[in-house]
Structure formats: C-alpha cells, structure tokens
Amino acid sequence: MGRWAIALHGGAGVDPNLPLQRQEEAKQLLTRCLNLAISALRSNHSAIDVVELVVRELETDPLFNSGRGSALSEKGTVEMEASIMDGPKRRYGAVSGLTTVKNPVSLARLVMEKSPHSYLAFSGAEEFARQQGVELMENEYFITQDNVGMLKLAKEANAILFDYRIPTTGLECCAAEADNPLMMNGLPINVYAPE
Amino acid sequence: TVGCVVVDKEGRCAAATSTGGLMNKMSGRIGDSPIIGSGTYACKLCAVSCTGEGEAILRGTLARDVAAVMEYKGLGLQEAVNFVIKERLDDGGKAGLIAVSNKGEVAYGFNTNGMFRGCAAEDGFMEVGIWE
User: Fold this and answer.
1) What's the N-to-C CA distance of chain A in angstroms?
2) Which alpha helices (DSSP H) does chain B contain, by range?
3) Residue B51 is among the residues annotated as catalytic for this protein
4) Interface predicted TM-score (ipTM) of this complex, two decimals
C-alpha cells in the first residue's frame, strides 16, 4: 500500500492588497476542501473520485473562478470549462463553453466514462449534459455581483485579464495605484485579484 | 481557476481542473484547463493541475512537461515543478501549478505573487497558503 496525498488550488495571481477577511475566507474554503478529501481518502475512495469531489465543492462555492463565481465573457455571460484525467488508465474527459451545467467537472467525467470521446464543447457539450441528466442552472446562477463589477472595470480598462480579476474596490483603486511601477497587461499589478 | 490532484493508497494519480476563464474574454475562447497536457495531466507517475495565464500555459504544455521531465530527465516531483515554472513559461508568462507523485509526495510552484493552495499527506502534513 502506498501513501495518499492531495494538493488543491483556487487560482494563481493574488492582489497583494487582498483584504484579510477575503484571505481568511479563501483559507477556510481550502481547509474545508482538504478535510473533505482527507476523509474520502481515509475511506478508501479512489483518486479520481476525490478530485471530482473536491472540484465540485470549489465550483459550488462562489469564492474562486469556476462554476458559480466564474469570470464573465465580454458579453457578460459565463462560459465554463473543465477537465479530469485518470492517470493509470490514461483516460481523459474535458468540456468547454458550458453555460448551464452546475458542476462542469462532473460532466467532464461523464465525457470520459460515458461517451466515446475525450472532449465536448459548447452546444454539443450542453446537449450531452441534458442527455446525461446532470444538474442544470440558469446562467444567472453563475454570475456574482462582484464579477459584474469586475467586468465593468475590465471593459473600462479595455483589457482582457489573464485569469486575474480586478477587485470591486472600484476605479479609485486603479487611480490610487497609478504610481505603482509594477504593471501587468497594462494595469498596475495590485488591481488584479485572484484568477 | 480551481484544481485538485490526488494520489490514493493504491498509488493511482488523478487530476481535475475547472475554470470560468478570463474576465472580459472573447466568447468562444478556450484556455488551458480543458486541454490535455496543458492545464491538466495525470499518468502513472504524477498528476498536475495548472492555473494562471491560459495562453502561456498552453504554449508551455506545463502539466505534461512536469511528467515528462520526471520521466525523461529523472527529476523528483518538486524539482520537476520548479524546472517547468522556471524554464517552460515564456518571458513574462505567469502561472502556478500543483502536483502529486505516485509515491505520495506533494509539490507546488508559481511565479505569480501568490496562489491559493492547500496540500495534505498521509503522514499528517497539512498546509494552506496564499503567498510564497
């Protein structure tokens, strides 16, 4: 018997001025997910089951950029994507362009296990989701007020933000940091929030 | 982006990644998360999940490269993660990744100012962090 281990992430690239309360919320969510995984592993769940379990939990909480709380497209909509891979069996499933699937990672697993393919996207993926009977939500479910504000700021800055989000502290934040020499994609580094 | 990598008691490695992508992205844009070998990869040796600038991660095939340098270069897990973050990202490419090996090791690396992350192992080790 080997030794189990787990690692998880909620995104890279964090606003250095992220409020302590937001940091604590993030740490609590990560800890809750770790404990969930530890409990499952101690109960002899397989690695593939545990990664799906943990990512579902992270997707359901709006704190990070996935599932509910996903970043918004230029149209103000959510287009989610996910993937899952089973190492020993070399199996893989992926989905893109989802707008209604509550837990994209579980649909990715269904692609891996219940379809003859590895990757489904957009209308085909949505159709497959309906066929499989996974839980669906209106697109509005995934959209948070924080992200609506961030999209507004991104549009005003005319920037596509590489997996980072502008905090909702507003444009005054950007102005206040105008003297900061550290820039990313044309914006001061500390206007970026995680993912 | 969120991700999780696990090795179970049987030494089986698995990885999963999920994301909403970029804020203000073009409709139809696909990032690294669903692309095998870029944002997500698992094999008999290890499992990897990435986060950060999707286009840079795609160009660097980061997740697969961790496994590749372990397999072909003989690096350990953390060495492989460090190598990939340092050597495989374009100039200015920002990313982070988490990994586990089939031996029960955990590793992570990032060249951003922080990464929301947590890890735990059977020997009781547990860590949650944001900054370096």
Assistant:
1) 37
2) 54-60, 62-73, 77-87
3) no
4) 0.98
